[in-house]
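Can you give me the bound-state structure? Components:
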Amino acid sequence: MKSKAIFYHAGCPVCQEAEQNVANALDPNRYDVEIVHLGQDRASLPKAEAAGVKSVPALVLDGQPYHINFGADLSALN
Amino acid sequence: MKSKAIFYHAGCPVCQEAEQNVANALDPNRYDVEIVHLGQDRASLPKAEAAGVKSVPALVLDGQPYHINFGADLSALN
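Here's the bound-state model for the whole set.
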């Protein structure tokens, strides 16, 4: 069974670069990668916050948040 | 041809967790992943700095630095 990976971003340049490189570098045989644009999909904000996401871009692997560089604080999207 | 991925860490708990999850999640068919412990391998510090690494843990993919969460500032290792 594949693990779940969720990549949260907000369309910022730092986000897009991380998406193209880090999110796309994950092993597709082991991870189902979901890309969530929190600027457009605000309904997903509580889920991201519950996973511990503080800023974007962030990658949640098996429920653990990994903040990758820094694009924007999550509070700026609320 | 595989791309080069270098995961820099310093043995800190944040580093180890990121190594086990993020570094190991990369697609082995596309990336040769090298793990560098900057606390033990100080000769690699200039290379990490030249790639733009400011803190550990960090992942350098195709020469681009991605800082993953925050364990320690690189200056603490110099």
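A couple of observations. Residues 54 and 75 of chain B are 8 Å apart (CA to CA). Chain B has two helices and four strands.
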